[in-house]
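Lecture notes, continued. The same structure-token format from the folding unit now serves as the input rather than the output. Read the line below as a description of shape only.
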């Protein structure tokens, strides 16, 4: 360990352990996976909390857990092609098995039971230690306070364009998105007057400099304080103000067509003619589905209200409104997943019914999820390795599902299966799928993502700087911000500045610069799959020290806990006008890929080519409807 690493606290965990409840693990690395393969090593220094009975309390490397995905390479290499469990060893039988316990899988179980009644035997199998998929709750017990945060999907958009079905699920779960403004915590702006700062780092911009007042001062006042070169400053002021028409002589239709086929970066360089340093300043800017400026269609940037377009005389039409992402539970959409659990396994909660106000603090008994007498069972830490029809697609009598649990390959039998897991894995989980369908499924190259939570001892450094959020355009994490939570259920994350607080960080690890979006996503997935927890910890400590150190922050002392939710398999792949050919919907790969295969139907947001809560529910509904249609029940 270098001196610098030691100074940053890479070797000192004692203080942190004193602060934290739960079981501190003293060994090196996270638990080995169920096959006994070594998990990615966490740093010898870090002592993640491991709480098998209550997974949200686990810290360290989370998201796509190492043991949950350790079987993927073997599945892809065909290791389980011959069904790996003997027929006479299969004793459990279900009406429906759902593979994948994200919002889509949990919704599928709810819909099936709601349609056919509680006598239906249903099993949801998931590879992670917690249900919810991307809807993941992170908890930190610091003294007598529990911080709750989101490790993945956060917001529920205003229920437009929610389908009738998705709206009715929210209603059934007791969620009123319209209460958003009542529940948003504004204390940092109203009481502490904190704003946003921009931190320019030396490696990218020539010097470390914090510039305050972004969004509060005029653009001109703000950008002239930055270390950007004078031409870049002037260009940023220009494109953020009233722009001239950069595409004179073209009709509206010609402009739209051109903007759809060029990247935002090309628009800025070739039409707005900005200084190359503007592109450096914007290198961490990501748009819908985390596309960077070189893969984001210029027209899409325009629909987001990005800088540079207001002189073109175009009315940018939003394809759909992403609505109000200001409404979110403190644990994001994990509360949606928990509410779904309260419907399908009500005995897991001591009290019933649950609603949006009670769910945040409701105690959940994970040991109740997979009880033999539950009409719906939820089995966790059980990666499915093979799904096989019994009989042909036309005349199948059932389906066998093999999974890996507690280091042992096991299997169950079902009349029907909904695959609500990653669609790109389906060609290897079900090698009998038609070749055209397999090819289509491989199109779904998921977007790598990372949501990190860092609990710190106090936030006096933020207060001193006058910021609640710092944007870092050149650094690994593009922003560092206080997680104010949300006041739903009486939750109150923010106390006095001398008290601990959770800091939330987002990162899009896809690699700008590579030729297309899928290559960028794959490179980001690889990066996330190879980084150890120590790698993450060091990056985090360095960035916190650089940005907050001048205001008294000491990474060695002030960092109490870290949870890195890494999602190599994040957002579903979505199409856009720059990277994908135009074609009728029914010819799109996700539609071909999600076709029913005998007694197996396919859900997950991947099958809807849109990464939203409502899509997860809608695709679950379609997959269940397909079963009923086949049975003549619709
Ligand atoms: C970081 C992040 C932030 C997001 N933010 C938002 C947001 O604010 N709002 C929004 O609407 N959407 C957001 N999304 C999109 C999110 O993907 C969807 O809204 C939705 O939650 C996806 O649900 P799903 O059930 O389709 O997929 P998932 O949540 O991915 O669930 C699939 C499940 O299948 C499991 N699985 C995979 N393979 C196997 C296997 N072999 N065996 C068993 N189980 C398996 C996975 O581990 C997972 O638990 C976000 C996504 C991410 C990653």
């Amino acid at each position: 360990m270098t001196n610098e690493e030691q100074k940053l606290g890479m070797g000192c965990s004692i203080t942190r352990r004193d602060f934290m409840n739960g079981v501190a693990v003293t060994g090196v690395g996270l638990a080995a996976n169920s096959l006994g393969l070594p998990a990615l090593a966490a740093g010898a220094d870090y002592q993640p909390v491991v709480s098998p009975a209550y997974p949200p309390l686990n810290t360290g490397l989370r998201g796509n857990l190492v043991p949950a995905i350790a079987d993927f390479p073997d599945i892809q290499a065909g290791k389980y092609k011959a069904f790996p469990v003997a027929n006479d060893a299969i004793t459990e039988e279900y009406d429906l098995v759902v593979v994948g316990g994200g919002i889509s899988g949990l919704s599928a179980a709810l819909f099936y039971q709601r349609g056919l009644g509680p006598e239906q035997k249903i099993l949801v199998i998931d590879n992670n230690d917690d249900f919810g998929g991307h809807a993941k709750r992170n908890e930190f017990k610091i003294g007598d306070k529990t911080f709750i945060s989101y490790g993945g999907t956060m917001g529920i958009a205003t229920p437009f364009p929610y389908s009738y079905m998705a709206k009715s699920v929210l209603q059934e779960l007791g969620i009123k998105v319209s209460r958003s403004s009542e529940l948003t915590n504004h204390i940092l702006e109203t009481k502490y007057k904190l704003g946003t700062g921009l931190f320019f780092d030396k490696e990218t911009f020539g010097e470390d400099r914090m510039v305050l007042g972004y969004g509060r001062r005029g653009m001109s006042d703000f950008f002239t304080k930055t270390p950007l070169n004078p031409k870049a400053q002037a260009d940023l002021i220009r494109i953020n103000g009233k722009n001239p028409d950069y595409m004179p002589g073209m009709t509206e239709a010609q402009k739209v067509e051109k903007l759809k086929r060029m990247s935002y970066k090309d628009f800025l360089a070739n039409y707005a003619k900005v200084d190359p340093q503007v592109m450096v300043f914007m290198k961490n800017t990501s748009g819908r589905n985390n596309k960077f400026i070189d893969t984001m269609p210029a027209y899409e940037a325009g629909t987001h209200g990005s800088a540079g377009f207001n002189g073109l005389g175009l009315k940018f039409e939003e394809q759909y409104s992403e609505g109000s992402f200001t409404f979110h539970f403190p644990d994001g959409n994990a509360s949606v997943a928990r509410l779904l659990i309260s419907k399908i396994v009500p005995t897991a909660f001591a009290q019933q019914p649950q609603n949006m106000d009670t769910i945040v603090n409701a105690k959940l008994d994970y040991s109740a999820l997979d009880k033999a007498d539950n009409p719906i069972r939820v089995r966790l830490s059980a990666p499915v390795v093979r799904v096989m029809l019994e009989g042909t697609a036309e005349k199948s009598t059932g389906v066998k599902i093999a999974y890996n649990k507690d280091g042992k390959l096991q299997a169950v039998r079902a009349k029907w299966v909904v695959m609500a897991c990653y669609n790109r894995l389906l060609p290897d989980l079900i090698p009998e799928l038609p070749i055209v369908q397999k090819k289509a499924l491989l199109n779904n190259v998921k977007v790598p993502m990372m949501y990190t939570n860092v609990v710190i001892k106090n936030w006096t450094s933020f207060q001193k700087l006058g910021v609640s959020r710092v944007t870092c355009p050149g650094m690994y994490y593009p922003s560092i911000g206080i997680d104010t939570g949300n006041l739903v259920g009486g939750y109150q994350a923010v106390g006095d500045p001398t008290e601990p607080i959770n800091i939330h960080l987002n990162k899009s690890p896809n690699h700008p610069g590579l030729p297309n979006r899928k290559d960028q996503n794959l490179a980001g997935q690889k990066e996330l799959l190879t980084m150890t927890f120590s790698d993450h910890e060091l990056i985090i400590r360095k960035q916190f020290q650089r940005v907050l150190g001048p205001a008294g922050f000491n990474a060695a002392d002030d960092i109490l806990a870290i949870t890195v939710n890494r999602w190599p398999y994040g957002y579903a792949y979505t199409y856009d006008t720059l990277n994908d050919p135009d074609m009728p919907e029914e010819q799109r790969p996700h539609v071909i890929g999600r076709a029913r295969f005998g007694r197996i139907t396919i859900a997950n947001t991947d099958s809807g080519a849109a990464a939203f809560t409502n899509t997860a529910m809608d695709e679950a509904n379609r997959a269940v409807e397909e079963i009923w249609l086949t049975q003549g029940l619709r």
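Point for the exam: Confidence is low (pLDDT under 50) at residues 14-46.
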